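agent> step 3/5: call structure_predict on target 'L-lactate dehydrogenase complex protein LldE' (Flavobacterium nitrogenifigens).
agent> reason: downstream docking stage needs a structural representation; sequence fetched in step 2, passing through unchanged.
tool.input:
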Amino acid sequence: MKIGLFIPCYVDQFYPKVGIATYELLQKLGCEVHFPMGQTCCGQPMANSGYAHLTKGCDANFIANFSGFDYIVCPSGSCVLHVKDHLHDEKQEEKATAIRNTVYELTEFITDVLKIDHIDGRFPFKVGMHVSCHGQRGLKLSQMSELNAPFFSKPEQLLHSIKDLDLVALTRKDECCGFGGTFCVTEEAVSVKMGQDRIKDHESHDVDYITGGDMSCLMHLDGILKRQKSRIKTIHIAEILNSLEN
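tool.output (status=ok):
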């Protein structure tokens, strides 16, 4: 199975360990993983700010880098959702359609494509799972709490298999952290207050780590945690799933 590893630009620049963990994890799970060196931003920040018409260069570059793979896997639900919903190129629409149909968020790929529900690993800490909006409501990675429907969570399903990991049940498990891409810049005060509220929920359950599938949300929460001089740390789910069992 030939995989194209799609690493978001902010992960590449600020959190390379997340990209490395994703690469190593997919290899451990038996995938042939390739990292296209010409990849750049997928165009999500521009599209979310009302400038989708300026993303044509990003779209063409994405198609040039990721055509021909069996699947494209990314450790970021928001970037995956953007590609699924917005990748188009009138000159290469057939290739764009193929990519939209084969791009997956990491935990979604592991559970739905590889059909893996157990990963051997060890992480002896108390962990709170932050559910990012794009992953939950766009990619349907987990059930929304406002629906009268059976609960499911693809990320939590994998976390439950990690030895010695204590995954807590949060009070408001799918509330937005306030990051929202450029929202945290244009509406800074609201964004910070929302982030502080999410952190209080994790603090009340005395977690050691906050994890999640989007490093962008974790970056937002991590900034608030550091300003509050909190002992709580953030860690991407790929880093936990890539841990070794001792």
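agent> step 4/5: record observation. The CA atoms of residues 144 and 174 lie 7 Å apart.
agent> proceeding.
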